[in-house]
Design goal:
- The protein has 256 residues and is α/β, with parallel strands linked by helices.
- It contains eight helices and seven strands.
- It has a single domain, classed as 3-Layer(aba) Sandwich (Rossmann fold).
- It has a seven-stranded parallel β-sheet, sandwiched between helices.
- Helix 5 packs parallel to helix 6.
Length: 256
């Protein structure tokens, strides 16, 4: 193994990824397993988690645990952490990736139930899971926690206001938890722009591509696999002197 590749080696590590069965979460899960980590794949749909877990085992030979978890439910988040510790005895990397942003036509249509659900999944769950896992990481000697935010957190539009507010809160958790768990646990965030995942299947792609040509420096949406480099950087020793940081991966959206 070369010195450069060794920086990204996760052999002997355990990585837990919420929203890990599809999209950016699945891409990160695969990249961690390919780098040598055993993985815990969590999402609301157990069948999807089990399907990816089987693929990971077959492709990489790594251990993979599938866990059904609605991260907006406090008790389910606690049960997820306990399941990971029971199976592996440790968590070295935590990725708070699960998120949701229901569509609405006008902000006045956002009711209390929708608002609470969006804040619960995008902010409350990551807070609780990070508090639990980060505390034990610190006791066990260290680890890496990654928050997956969104460019909506810094450039919010009118059609995703609760989501943008929740992701802005997630950005605030990064330096706060970095300070809380220093010096052994590193806490960083990835701020993705538009990625062409399952969510994008509902987009008007012709309109998106026309807009991307003038609003994104790379003139396109990202592919899920293009998140892997940022995730591996923060998960591994390659980022050993990086904590409390936010890395934008947006194809240059913010620059426009």
């Amino acid at each position: 193994m070369s010195e450069a590749s060794g920086l990204f080696d996760l052999s002997g590590k355990v990585a837990l990824v919420t929203g890990g069965s599809r999209g950016l979460g699945a891409a990160m899960t695969r990249s961690f397993a390919r780098a040598g980590a055993d993985v815990v794949i969590a999402s609301r749909k157990l069948e999807a988690c089990e399907r990816l877990a089987a693929e990971v085992r077959a492709e990489t030979g790594r251990r993979a645990l599938a866990v059904a978890c609605h991260v907006g439910e406090w008790g389910q988040v606690e049960a997820l952490a306990e399941a990971a510790w029971a199976e592996f005895g440790r968590i070295d990397v935590l990725v708070n990736n699960a998120g949701m942003s229901p569509l609405y036509d006008h902000v006045r249509e956002v009711g209390e139930e929708l608002y609470d659900k969006v804040l619960a999944v995008n902010l409350k769950g990551p807070f609780r899971l990070t508090a639990l896992v980060g505390s034990r990481m610190a006791e066990d000697g260290g680890g890496s926690i990654i928050m997956v935010s969104s460019t909506a957190s810094v450039n919010p539009g009118p059609n995703a206001i609760p989501y943008a507010a929740a992701k802005a809160g997630l950005n605030a958790l990064v330096p706060a938890f970095a300070r809380a768990f220093a010096p052994t646990v590193r806490v960083n965030g990835i701020v993705p722009g538009p990625f062409l995942t399952d969510i994008s299947k509902a987009w008007d792609m012709e309109a998106f591509e026309a807009r991307a040509a003038s609003t994104i420096l790379l003139a396109r949406g990202g592919q899920a696999e293009e998140i892997a480099g940022a995730a591996l950087y923060f998960a591994s020793e390659a980022s050993s002197f990086t904590t409390g940081a936010l890395l934008t991966v947006s194809g240059g959206t913010a620059a426009r």
